[in-house]
Amino acid sequence: MKSVQYYCKACGAALGESKGLTHCLECHTIIGNGRSFCGQCGLNRAQNKCYNICSTCQASFEEQDKQVSEDIPLSTPSASFVSPDYIGTTVKQDIIKSSNQPIASSDSSNHLNINNHKVKLAWLLGLGCFLLIGSFLFGLYLGRNKNQPETTDNPVAVQNQDPKEPLNEDDPIKQDEPIDQDEPEKIEPQEQDNEIYLDEMTLSETIGVSNEGKPTDVTGKQYLNHYLTISDNGFHDGLIKVYLGKKYSQLSGVIAVDLNTTNEDLAVITIKSDDSVLYSSGQILKSTSPIQLSQLDITDCEWLTIDVDMEGKYLSSKFSVILSDFMLS
Prior knowledge:
Layout: H1 61-66, H2 89-99, H3 106-147, H4 155-160, E1 196-197, E2 205-207, E3 209-210, E4 227-232, E5 238-243, E6 250-257, E7 266-273, E8 276-284, E9 291-297, E10 303-311, E11 319-328
Antiparallel strand pairs: 1-11, 2-5, 3-4, 4-11, 5-10, 6-9, 6-11, 7-8, 7-10
């Protein structure tokens, strides 16, 4: 005969004499489950001296452990034993019990469906990235073509076409007129407020001319603004040629020997207005002090020429001068 259970074997709570309970009113454990307390007297089995027999009521733990919830008749519990905490316990225990039941083939089916969804999501993300990159590259291509000027199959006609007139493909191609190689092309001077520095003008012809760096003359002075360096490097004279168009009357500035000039060299600096010599320095050395030019008359000057000629051309020789604050007014 099976032992009668008066106490919850999970928490040791008293269950009373009613046999209609299906769950413990304290811990809501299904009646018959649990091995922590004696179901007949409520003794904590951890304090029991004997392993298989309760030391208080002499009940058999082995027989109690075989007793499961299915052996207890299920019926509605007495109202005297029902507490507010008990409401919904049976439903919750049934849900927990059903959730522990193994699922046969639905797990593999759900797993396969999840994998299919992942594959579709990855494919859609890849397609979206491809479309985004393609649209970006296409936008760059359109922007580049928009910034490029329109071309024509007739380059000679475009070169001779007046910029104020539209290009007409039916017009005959005009042949370029021969250009006199001895006379450089005239360049209209820039608009100025009656005064302009030489380094701000468009130079028509230059040889050995630079305005980069921060040159230093033989006295140790460094030049930062409004200067040009002109050099004879042993092969060619240093040369500056600029078109004035008879719009200036005076020229002023400073000529200083560059510190990079070799020690043994001599040079002559000449300034011309068309074919007339306005200034000649005579022979100057590396030790020559800076030369001040004041109000050279350049009235009716169309082409202004500045020449640096080193006496004796040697591969290892170099004579450089600094034209500082050359002002035309």
